[in-house]
């Protein structure tokens, strides 16, 4: 495929299947400087699908650097009210939302004070969590290759070759190499929906993760239901919030996480790279966060509020997806979290529990995924009476 064809096919997948843009909708696109070609292709596709207006918001990572480097402490804690108000209005007017991931300028913040990077609140909006939990928008997030991201992922290649390689991988993991990518995604989603239902039916009291450097027990809520990335809005619009997506996930009990876990992949969060991460939990709280690189930034992020150091998500990923087998570390949460089982510090999902457990869902401004799974990490379900049931062994489902 030539570049124009690839852009158009990825844009059509995100617009038509991911967000499932409807005739007459306003479409909000969150992008960055450096992602203009795909952003424009998304706008064109959205209008072809009947959008009445496409509103693009471009972020500039260099402007964020200036804020962190030169802004006052007050500046780091300031987010204009209209940022959150805009998201709420998108929900009220039942708009569609599309966001693009992938770093434009990786390493841009690495020489700054990690504590200040972690204290910058411009990246987290509580209103975004409300709109997701209220299910008022049909939305999706997808990857956008850039030269900077490509050289981070494939430093062994020349820049042009690295970008071509990254595009090749994105085409593969998004199933754009299939004659009918949408049909391929629907088949994969059907499999994951079935797995999620079996996990829900099992009604485990907890999950235990055991592997090198990891012995972690994550308690579940009585009504925790497992979900795949096959969503539906309150108005009945089906959409796929993450493309690609290979996970099933639920909301855990934020008070019942115990043990130590080692991240199986590095992560890029808040503009900082975190490598060699280990976290120790007691009474549901992350009481020790250590890493070979980036620990200070993550510690600061978890101090945003009381819920920042507790879990809001636990997700399982098998070895049958397309991301994990590549063996590539993408330094992008969208892709890396769908290569391996993971947990998330911070905000939980109201829609994954029933009304009686809503008050127990973790509440936070942040939601920070990190990967803890792999073929050498066993996942076991623990029933209320203490019985152990294999869930994942060698990356394969056992249920």
TrEMBL record:
<dbReference type="InterPro" id="IPR052170">
    <property type="entry name" value="M29_Exopeptidase"/>
</dbReference>
<keyword id="KW-0031">Aminopeptidase</keyword>
<dbReference type="GO" id="GO:0046872">
    <property type="term" value="F:metal ion binding"/>
</dbReference>
<comment type="similarity">
    <text>Belongs to the peptidase M29 family.</text>
</comment>
<keyword id="KW-0378">Hydrolase</keyword>
<dbReference type="GO" id="GO:0006508">
    <property type="term" value="P:proteolysis"/>
</dbReference>
<keyword id="KW-0482">Metalloprotease</keyword>
<protein>
    <submittedName>
        <fullName>Aminopeptidase</fullName>
        <ecNumber>3.4.11.-</ecNumber>
    </submittedName>
</protein>
<dbReference type="InterPro" id="IPR000787">
    <property type="entry name" value="Peptidase_M29"/>
</dbReference>
<dbReference type="GO" id="GO:0008237">
    <property type="term" value="F:metallopeptidase activity"/>
</dbReference>
<dbReference type="Pfam" id="PF02073">
    <property type="entry name" value="Peptidase_M29"/>
</dbReference>
<dbReference type="InterPro" id="IPR035097">
    <property type="entry name" value="M29_N-terminal"/>
</dbReference>
<keyword id="KW-0479">Metal-binding</keyword>
<dbReference type="GO" id="GO:0004177">
    <property type="term" value="F:aminopeptidase activity"/>
</dbReference>
<keyword id="KW-0645">Protease</keyword>
